[in-house]
């Protein structure tokens, strides 16, 4: 779009300048006959030529001014766009920072909860280990007691056998009645 504006401006300015240039180069045949250095026409032609040069210079200046005006508008538009984009980026950065802070707090909370759970699991594990150790000790004690009782039963059984050999069976029945 900028290029089209610029090209349109150049075309119009060029057309104006070209017309002036063509008109300035057209010299009537009568002007050639009066080119006497002493004639009054000479200063007028000099002034006229100087005016044409000034007009050409003015036309060039107008062209340059229009070019710079178009460039200024382009740069101004780009600047406004850049400022707008920069503001949007600032807002987006601010939103991202807020989101980051919220996630950071959430992670800290989750980490604290996880550490608390780990601590509780460790305490529970130690309690279970202690209880298991106590149960193992109790079982060992009971097994030892059972072994002792079993040995005592075996011993008693052996003694009963010994006694049964010493006493006849009818005496055993009278002893059992006695007991």
UniProtKB/TrEMBL annotation:
Keyword annotations from UniProtKB, A to Z: Coiled coil
InterPro entries to which the protein is assigned, alphabetical: YkyA-like_sf
Source domain of life: Eukaryota
Coiled-coil intervals, chain numbering: 48-131
Protein name as catalogued: Uncharacterized protein
